[in-house]
Specification:
Layout: H1 9-22, H2 30-43, E1 45-47, E2 55-57, E3 66-67, E4 73-76, E5 84-87, E6 98-99, H3 108-119, E7 141-142, E8 149-152, E9 162-164, E10 170-171, H4 173-193, H5 203-209
Parallel strand pairs: 3-6
Antiparallel strand pairs: 1-2, 4-5, 7-8, 8-9, 9-10
Helix pairs in contact: 1-2
């Protein structure tokens, strides 16, 4: 799969010019170059190891795995020479193998936008479809009026309002997204400093760190 119909022509045309004109490899048609580049971009997996160079490659299992925000496998990238795909839950015979294309701790807005930008689809997995993110509450806010839980009314709609289950106060999608970005910065800072998250209005974090 190369998602050629979704990809911008400007970068692809630059690559075609680079290969055919500058590298003098005009035996390859523009269509073939765009097709191959699309397959490489969409299906290869980045491999990062601290202290080593970053690389991309096709992996026999992982490159064929579909995405799910509640994936049943994970990439183990601790060895600079290998990428190991491990099951994170019991996978039955015939069951689809999935892994998370983006960071699992990202909120709904950031996670779905990253998937749309990088892989050209709006995720509608079981986690994205659930207002509570399958009970993880990773994207649930705490109401400033009554301390009730504030969740998206229509999780698969990026413009959905957020509503408090207690007092029924509402937040616009933009307000909820701004809150998510602020809290994401706090969480990333926490991981960098290996300290303690002092306060948060994100229910999932409050549950995890209280």
């Amino acid at each position: 799969m190369d998602h050629g119909e979704d990809r911008g022509e400007r970068d692809q045309d630059h690559l075609v010019d680079l290969i055919r004109r500058r590298w003098k490899q005009d035996q390859f048609s523009p269509e073939i170059i765009r097709r191959v580049e699309g397959i490489l971009d969409i299906n290869t997996v980045e491999h990062r190891v601290p202290g080593a160079e970053s690389a991309r490659g096709f992996l026999p299992i992982t490159s064929l795995a579909s995405h799910s925000c509640a994936s049943n496998s994970i990439k183990d990238k601790t060895n600079p020479k290998f990428v190991i795909t491990r099951a994170r839950t019991k996978i039955l015979k015939g069951e689809e193998i999935t892994f998370h294309y983006t960071g699992g701790l990202k909120g709904r807005f950031m996670r779905r936008k990253a998937l749309k930008a990088g892989w050209f689809f709006w995720c509608s997995c079981s986690r994205c479809s659930s207002p509570s993110e399958q009970g993880s509450e990773i994207n649930t806010l705490i109401c400033s009026s009554c301390s009730g839980l504030v969740r998206p009314v229509s999780p698969l709609d990026q413009e959905s309002i957020y509503s408090c289950e207690g007092c029924k106060d509402e937040l616009s999608a933009k307000e909820a997204e701004n809150r998510e970005q602020e809290l994401t910065k706090q969480l990333e800072s926490f991981y960098r400093k290996k300290g303690f998250l002092r306060s948060s209005s994100w229910m999932g974090w409050r549950r995890a760190w209280s």
